[in-house]
Amino acid sequence: MTETGSMSTNAAPGAHFIKSIIEADLAAGKNSGKVATRFPPEPNGYLHIGHAKSICLNFGMALDFGGTCNLRFDDTNPTKEDVEYVDAIMEDVQWLGFDWDHRLHYASDYFEKLYGFAVELIKSGNAYVDDLSADEIRKYRGTLTEPGTDSPWRNRTIEENLDLFGRMRNGEFPDGTRVLRAKINMAHPNIIMRDPTLYRIRKAIHHRTGNAWCIYPMYDFTHCLSDSLEGITHSLCTLEFENNRPLYDWVLDHVDAPCHPQQIEFARLNLTYTVLSKRKLIQLVEDRAVSGWDDPRMPTLCGLRRRGYTPEAIRNFCDRIGVARRDSVVDVALLEHSIREDLNVRAPRMMAVLKPLKVIIENYPEGQVEELEAVNNPEDPAAGTRKVLFSKEIYIEKDDFMENPPKKFFRLSPGKEVRLRYAFFITCTDVVKDPVTGDIIALRCTYDPATRGGDAPDGRKVKATLHWVSAAHAVDAEVRLYDRLFTKENPDEKEEGRTWKDFINPTALEILKDCKLEPCLADVDPGYFCQFERLGYFCVDTKDAKPGALVFNRTVTLKDAWARVKGEKPIS
Ligand code: ATP
Ligand code: MG
Description:
Layout: H1 17-27, E1 36-39, H2 49-64, E2 68-73, H3 83-96, E3 104-106, H4 111-123, E4 127-130, H5 134-140, H6 158-169, E5 179-182, E6 197-201, E7 215-217, H7 219-229, E8 234-238, H8 245-254, E9 262-266, H9 278-286, H10 301-307, H11 311-321, H12 332-346, E10 349-350, E11 352-353, E12 356-361, E13 370-375, E14 385-390, E15 393-397, E16 417-420, E17 425-433, E18 440-448, E19 465-466, E20 469-470, E21 475-482, E22 509-517, E23 529-532, E24 536-540, E25 550-556, H13 561-566
Parallel strand pairs: 1-2, 2-3, 8-9, 10-23, 12-18, 16-19, 21-25
Antiparallel strand pairs: 4-5, 5-6, 6-7, 11-22, 12-15, 13-14, 15-20, 16-17, 17-18, 21-22, 23-24, 24-25
Helix pairs in contact: 2-11, 7-8, 11-12
Adenosine-5'-triphosphate binds next to helix 2, strand 8 and helix 9.
């Protein structure tokens, strides 16, 4: 079963529980009428469509209420982070259409202040240095049903703790030998509250602070204090942090923090036929199951961009799925519907033949070329018309011909008449085969000059209209067709003896090297997009297309599964 967030409620469009909370806060005069949010990525991977939900929510709330939204890198784990990710994340947020203005922050900029807060906790008796190993700490923690046990180091004096913490900072102890822990309650029903670790020793080079630090603050300590230092009012995060909220509040209540932001959790985006965990996306890249983070099969923002998704389509998708507190899985068909809907009104229609079959029109004058008028976009009259060239030899799609057709096949077959889009009716008179292999290599046809433009003056009808390109004028291109990256609706679902990797779709990429395009596409730039009639929406690849060597990606087919399910008018 798939459902779509808050879509099922009948609240006003764009309304959701977080918006209601903020409205109520403003009405009550909370935070002096201010709304300040932040998007806090960890620079340890590229952003994906799930992050887009969070970006649209955080920046969206700031825009809706005249507030501000910061971009803050949560960069407290030096071993997994990299400037490559920092740069890519900024590019993606901007591409989505959001502006953090001068409000760019790094948690690492707060390291000195965070250290000060830790010292404050030690001085008030609320934190201690523990010498237990990571394994021992785990053992002492207890379980969901049993309380934990106090560490033998829990009752060190404040002086000893201050001395040891200072020496941890000075690099006197090896990695993993000591940590700083909050002194809360080892019997707390919420395991997260059983003296959580606040600092650990990690002698690693940080991508921004270099070797200035060898102790690094943990997420739960860093996040709430960074929010507070930035004057965040509403700290929006995903549901898995619900159990961390008491710790978020505890830290802020036990130091002299500038303000106490409110943490509010929402359901993360899950998509059918997709994995959205950074850890798994990294594995796909490292295993070379895809060509990189920006492989057009990836659910990353750079992958979707390269595939031909527009920021408008993604923002629209995020609006549609809404924001709810209940976990749900969104049908990937809705994402595909969103890009179709956007491109439908914007993409010029072109003709391209992906698997060409030559057609020789026997009664067409040798050497003659004529121009026929084609509509650029039936959804947009302002897009006007263009000329397409017609000549004696053309290409049609291999799949549009069958020598021995079944009853319901209405396209071309021996003796059948069909329409060539914007051109003429043609009738197949003969099939040319390779004498050795027996493969069909060309068709011989006749055309009816009286049907110029696509209609017969005598009113006779045909049951199919085919796209085509003039052989002598066609431009060659490589075209890449994509399918969903996973064959299973929920690749993360546990299955005996199989892992999510076993459901990678081996045919998610099909490369067609011998495609024939309308000549006006000869010089289009990387990123150019259009519809190839009957085949889908396509764009010029931004990485592999070179002058004189066109490479197109199929963004999405025309078949709209979502519109069908919802009984909406299918998009043509
Ligand atoms: P992943 O689980 O994919 O590794 P993450 O949560 O570790 O992601 P962060 O860089 O910490 O990645 O995420 C930045 C923000 O984006 C966080 O506030 C996080 O809650 C949010 N976010 C991440 N994944 C999703 C998702 N699938 N849907 C909505 N928000 C998400
Ligand atoms: Mg995270």
